[in-house]
Structure formats: structure tokens, C-alpha cells
């Protein structure tokens, strides 16, 4: 093939036996969603991969930037490589636009009430009851980032609202911090596929943090939280709901110990210090990530993993990455390894913050931040 870059339509005309489709993204992104039939060879490992020279090698990355550069390099080495124009997102946009939203909503809702009731809906309502996350008359801003967790949370809230006589209100809130048009289109289309009536509001957070060299992800997260609280309060809400799940909780516990030298966790609900009368709740607190993935895959859903401007414009020359993200990835892998040897490990980590005995702790801080030692009264 003479061309270095091909379209989706041109890709569809290539015979499967004469094609090797390669996903250049990292393993986590590949697992989150990929083009059917693609093999995962992260861009760092492409030079060591044993690829044929008698087949068309079609590379794709997130947006087609890295893949085009690598395809050109491979062609110079004698490989018939091409890059998929627009990358994974080009395929994703076409895929989700082909879905019949009427049928998809019906199937998704049925999967929650039947197949995944025990693994998703039951722990969702259990967390709400156990941690008193909802009260009569609450108006909750269900915050949707566009990923699998927040999208499922929105659907679970919608189902709960429909099938309970408990009086509360919902607003399905999507903040656009400066997404690319493609990212925003995917979020809005997925909301239609799930039958979620979203309210979108715009901010310029990405523009404000894009040039920050030190801890841009931390600053971005703080700004997002502030904007969400502010908009939710403007809409008359007294709570915002975030889609953190059980695995997020246990990873946070271990990260605090290993990297923060402290024992703490991600709380199921938190009172806002800056917005009077507002609370943050996490109703996915008892839901396992593996069950979220099973639900996603059963319904053939494709969500965005990260719509950050840094990753949108990432090139092979390097990009800004979150140190916290890499640490969390390591902790996730560590917990998974330990759980293979002993399945109780994950549950024990979770329960460890419920079974703190202050008489066996060297020191602790009270809610005012004052430090107490075990021998203060000796």
C-alpha cells in the first residue's frame, strides 16, 4: 500500500488474512476498549515486536498522531505499515453512532434489573442505606465524567428513582472542562445510548492548567470539584455524587500507607468545607470494578477512559502524565498479585479502616488536626 494513512472505510475493505491491526496504547487503555481484532503492542514495545513484512500492518493510537509517526518509521524499515486516521476515537465515534438507542436503553436497563442486580444494584442500594447517603427531599447532582463508573452510577440512580417511593430528585450533570469536540460527542452519544438526560455546562479548566508544570492533575481535580459544587448548588442540589468504587477505596488506603505515610481512606460521604450545606457522596462504594467491566462488556458499551487535554494532544515525544496515576497503577497491580495468593486480601484492606484500635496506634490526629500520642497520659 502506497499510502501511510488510511481511513476507516479503507480499513474495512482490507482482507482480515492480509492485515495485522495493532493498538499502540498502553494495556489499561486497550482493556478499557479497543477495535475488535486488534492486538495490543504498546508504542514503547513496537520495535521489539515480531511483525510480518508480507501483511499490511495498520497501527492506531488514541487520535492517530503517534501511529502516523511510527508508521512512517516502520515503512523506512521495510514494513508495509499504515496509520488509521483519527485513531481509536475515529472508530469509537462511528461505532456508537450505529447503535439503536431505543433498543440499547431497554437492554441496559434489563441487564441491571436481572443479570447484574446482585452485583451492581444491590451493593449500590446497600451503600446508600449503610452510609446514609440519601435523605428524603435530597436533590443530587450525579456527576458524569464520561467513563464507565460515572455512567453506570447515573443509570443506577435513575433505576432507583424510578422504582422507589422514597422522594428525592436527580440532575445528571456533565462538566465540560474544555473537551475536544470528539470527546464531548462521545459523552453525549453514550448518554443517549443509556437513556440519561444530561445537563452539560462549560468551563475553561483545561486552558487554565495546560501550561502548569507542577502537579497539573492535582490542580485540575481541585478546580473540577469546585466547579461541580458551584453548579450543583446553583441548580438547587444539596449533594454531588461521584463514581468512585470499592477498588478505588482499597487502592487509596494502600497508597496512603506506601506513599503518604498515613492511614486514611476515601470516605463514603464528606461535608463540603467551602460550600455550606453541600455534601459529596459515593454510592458506588461497595461495587467491584470487575463487575462494572462485566456490565459494560455485556452491553457492548464503549466509554472514554480519559478526556484530559494532556492526553488528547500527547505525542511520541512525550506528554505530561500524572505521578499519582502511575502510583495507583502500581498499587492496583500489587493488590491483584496479593489477591491471587489470598482472595481475602482485598476485603481485609477495606475492613482495616473499620477496625482501627486507637490503643494500639502510636499516634493519630483528631478532626481538628491535633496530634495525640499513645503515651500522652502516661
Summarize the structure.
With 378 residues, this protein is α/β, with parallel strands linked by helices. Helix content is 45%, strand content 13%. Strand 6, helix 7 (148-162) and strand 7 (169-176) form a beta-alpha-beta unit.
CATH architectural grouping of the largest domain: 3-Layer(aba) Sandwich
- Tell how many strands the DSSP assignment holds: 13
Number of helices: 15
Strand order of the largest sheet: 8-7-6-9-11-10
Helix residue percentage? 40-55%
Q: Count up the domains.
A: 2
Terminal-residue CA separation: 81 Å
- Uncertain ranges: 312-321
User: Which class best fits the helix and strand makeup?
Assistant: alpha/beta
What best-fitting shape do the alpha-carbon axes yield? globular
Strand share of the residues? Answer: 5-15%
What is the name of the CATH superfamily of the largest domain?
HUPs
CATH fold name of the largest domain: Rossmann fold
Largest sheet: 6 strands, mixed
Instruction: Please compute the radius of gyration using only Cα atoms.
Output: 23 Å
- What pattern of helices and strands is seen along the backbone? EHEHEEHEHHHEHEHEHHEHEEHHHHEE
Amino acid at each position: 500500500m502506497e499510502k501511510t494513512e488510511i481511513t476507516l472505510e479503507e480499513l474495512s475493505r482490507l482482507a482480515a488474512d492480509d492485515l495485522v491491526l495493532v493498538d499502540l496504547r498502553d494495556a489499561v487503555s486497550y482493556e478499557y476498549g479497543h477495535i475488535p481484532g486488534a492486538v495490543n503492542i504498546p508504542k514503547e514495545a513496537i520495535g521489539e515486536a515480531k511483525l510480518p513484512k508480507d501483511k499490511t500492518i495498520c497501527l492506531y493510537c488514541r487520535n492517530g498522531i503517534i501511529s502516523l509517526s511510527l508508521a512512517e518509521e516502520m515503512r523506512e524499515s521495510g514494513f508495509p505499515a499504515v496509520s488509521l486516521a483519527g485513531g481509536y476515537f475515529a472508530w469509537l465515534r462511528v461505532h456508537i453512532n450505529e447503535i439503536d438507542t431505543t433498543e440499547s436503553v431497554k437492554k441496559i436497563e434489563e441487564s441491571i434489573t436481572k443479570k447484574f442486580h446482585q452485583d451492581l444494584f444491590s451493593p449500590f442500594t446497600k451503600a446508600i442505606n449503610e452510609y446514609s447517603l440519601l435523605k428524603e427531599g435530597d436533590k443530587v447532582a450525579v456527576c458524569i465524567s464520561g467513563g464507565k463508573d460515572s455512567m453506570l452510577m447515573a443509570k443506577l440512580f435513575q433505576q432507583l428513582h424510578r422504582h422507589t417511593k422514597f422522594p428525592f430528585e436527580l440532575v445528571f450533570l456533565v462538566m465540560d472542562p474544555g473537551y475536544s469536540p470528539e470527546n464531548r460527542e462521545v459523552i453525549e452519544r453514550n448518554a443517549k445510548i443509556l437513556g440519561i438526560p444530561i445537563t452539560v455546562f462549560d468551563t475553561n479548566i483545561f486552558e487554565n492548567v495546560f501550561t502548569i508544570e507542577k502537579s497539573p492533575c492535582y490542580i485540575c481535580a481541585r478546580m473540577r470539584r469546585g466547579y461541580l459544587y458551584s453548579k450543583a448548588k446553583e441548580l438547587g442540589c444539596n449533594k454531588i455524587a461521584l463514581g468512585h468504587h470499592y477498588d478505588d477505596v482499597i487502592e487509596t488506603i494502600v497508597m496512603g500507607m506506601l506513599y503518604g505515610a498515613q492511614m486514611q481512606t476515601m470516605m463514603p460521604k464528606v461535608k463540603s468545607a467551602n460550600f455550606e450545606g453541600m455534601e459529596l457522596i459515593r454510592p458506588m462504594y461497595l461495587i467491584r470494578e470487575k463487575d462494572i467491566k462485566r456490565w459494560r462488556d455485556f452491553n457492548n458499551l464503549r466509554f472514554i477512559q480519559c478526556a484530559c487535554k494532556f492526553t488528547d494532544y500527547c505525542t511520541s515525544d512525550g506528554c505530561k502524565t500524572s505521578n499519582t496515576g502511575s502510583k495507583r497503577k502500581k498499587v492496583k497491580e500489587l493488590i491483584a498479585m496479593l489477591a491471587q495468593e489470598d482472595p481475602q486480601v482485598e476485603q481485609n484492606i477495606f475492613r482495616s479502616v473499620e477496625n482501627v484500635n486507637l490503643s494500639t496506634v502510636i499516634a493519630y490526629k483528631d478532626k481538628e488536626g491535633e496530634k495525640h500520642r499513645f503515651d500522652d497520659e502516661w
